[in-house]
Every structure is written in C-alpha cells, then in structure tokens.
UniProtKB/TrEMBL annotation:
Residues 10-382 form the Major facilitator superfamily (MFS) profile domain. This is Putative MFS family arabinose efflux permease. One of its GO terms (cellular component) is membrane. GO terms for molecular function: transmembrane transporter activity. It is found in: Membrane. The keyword Zinc does not apply. The keyword Membrane applies. The chain crosses the membrane at residues 12-30, 36-61, 73-91, 97-118, 139-158, 164-184, 204-225, 231-255, 267-286, 327-346, 352-371. Its main location: membrane. The lineage of its organism: Bacteria, Pseudomonadati, Pseudomonadota, Gammaproteobacteria, Oceanospirillales. Keywords: Membrane, Transmembrane, Transmembrane helix. It comes from Chromohalobacter marismortui.
Amino acid sequence: MATEAHLHQMRFRNTLTFLSNGFGIGVWSIEIAPVRLIVGISEAVLGLALFGFAAAALLGMRVGARMSDRWPINRVCGVLGLAFAVALFLPCLARDIGTLVITLILLGATNGALDVAMNTRGSLIENRYDRPIMSSFHAAWSIGGAAGAALAGVLTGFGFGPVIVLSIAALFVAVSLAASSGAYQPPAPLANECSSSCGKRRQLDPRLAGLCLLAFCALFTEGAIADWSSIYLQGVLESGFAIGFFAFSAGMSVGRLGGDRAVTRYGRLRVGSLGALIAGLAMAYVLWAPSLGTACICFLLTGQGMSNVVPMTFSMAGQVTAKTSQGIAMAATFGYTGFLLGPAFIGGLTHFLTLPLALMVLVITIGVIALTSQFVFPPKEADYQSARK
C-alpha cells in the first residue's frame, strides 16, 4: 500500500508535470508568430502547418495510452516529458515550411502522449487519495500556461528571438519534468485489482460515451472562446476587447484551484451541472448585452463555471474503464477534437450568421454539458466511492 508520504510525493511530482507542460505550451503560443516570420509563410499556410500539430497530438494520445499500459507510469511520464522538451525547442530551427511541419508534428505527438500519461498518473494518484484532486493538476497546467506566455512575452518584448526563448523554455521543462518522474511507483491500478467480471463491466460502461460527449462540448467551447472572444468584443467595444479571454482564463484558474474542495463538498453532479448552468447564462448575457463590465464579469463566470468539467470528466473516464489510460485517452481524444473543431465551426457559421448569433452555439454546447452531467456524474452521497465500484 502507498504510504501517505509517497502519495504526497507523487502528487507533488505530477503537479510539477502539469505545470511544466502548461508552461511549455504557453511559451509556444507566444512564439508561433515570430517563428512564422522567420520561416516566411502566410497565416493561411501556418494554419495548415498547425493542423499537422493537431493531427499528431491525436495520434500521440493513443501512443501515450499504450505506453501507460505497458510500462511504469513514472518512467513513461519522464521519457515523454524529455521528448516534449526536445520537441519544444525544434521549431526555432525551422527555416522552411517542410522542416516547420516536421517539427510541429513532433511537438504535437509528444504533447498529446504526455497529456494522456500525466492524466493517467493523476487518476491513479486520485484513486489512492480516496478524494478528488484532479482539478488541482489542471489548475497547475493553467497557471503554468499563463506563466509561460508571460515570460515569452517579456523576453520577446526585449528583443530575444525564438532560439533564445524556446531554449530557455525547453531547458526549464526538461529539468522540471525529469525531476517529476521520481523513483517511487504507485501500486497497481485499481482497475487491475478488480475481478475480471468487474473489468468487463467497466469496459462496457455506457457512461464513457457520455463522458466523451462532455469532453467534446467542454473543449469545443474553450477553443471557440479562445479564438473568437476578442474578435467578438472588438466588434462591439471601443477598447478593452482583450478582457474577454483574460477574464475567462482567470475564472478557469480560480475555479480549478478550488475545484477539489467543491467536488468533495458538493459532489461532481452539482459542480458540473450548476457550473454549466451559470456559465451558459453568463455567456448568453454577454452576447445579449455586451459592455466592458458585462464582458469582464460574464467571461469570468463562464470560465469559473466550466473550469472543473474537464478534470472531473478525465477523472471519471479513468474510473469507468478496465484500463485507466484507455478511458482517459478516449475522453482526451474527443475533447481535443472538439477544441480543434470549435473555432472552425464558429468561423464557418459567420458566413451565414452574425458573429453574436454564431456564438450562441456555445450556449447550446454548455447546455448539453449541464444536461449530460445529470446522467454521467453520480450524486454527492454516492459520488467518489461508488464511481469506482
């Protein structure tokens, strides 16, 4: 059995993994523009190159799941973490579209594989804690992403190019992710401790389909807000149009920091359904009556209401399947697909509708989250223990 000291150690190491991965992606989100200028390609061509990143990430998630099943999870996180750090540096060496696409495929694949591995380890640790802790890992990712973007913005503002910025980021990520691998391995996954009949039942658990739908709708909404909130506010406000995504990100981070306590106190069902209800009403209101004040408050509430949907979904997906990594990989794949399709779908609708009307689709997807939560999340009195039985 895992001792309390070992569990705290594992939690700290996995938190560091999430923080480092978020930091790397945050840096890369800022360095995309300078890399594009160095390579000398248009925004349209860059969009096609980034499609390679997304496609490779989806494939990497399946690879990460298989690695997590086959080898000790700490070693998998360590190896994939170092691979991600190397891949994070490579785009700064690209000088033509061909090499850029290759480096983006490597970055996407390692990021997708690491995403599944660290969420799998998080689910295994959460099972041993016997209480929700998954939201704290995702909060670390959000904080790391903000820190990475801030550092890259400052360094770029001082005139440092992608080679210097990505070198610093890759070195930090490599050291921290290597340190987060650890020597102590968690005991065998709880799913493997069940009887074979339990494993078969979990493989067929219909809740997994609902959890995949939740992941898709949640990340569909997040992706669309990330790409379209500033454009929407730019069209209706004279200034302060960047406040939308900033407020959304702040609400997401704050919500995740307190997410585990909320789930423990109120249960997944209430946190998921009530949070989605608040987010949907806030999103609808900012589309109906946009102003600087409503944008700040409503996007903050939207982020806070949506903040724990993905962590809870990944946690449950790892519990209702015979293999933790396979359930998380399925939910992550559906979620990441939604994250990619969300911005494109809203953009396509703008050819037929105004942007505010197109963004009303997000109110619908948030409503689907609130409704689906009623069927996939157990009530508080049966929340944590029964989810694994």
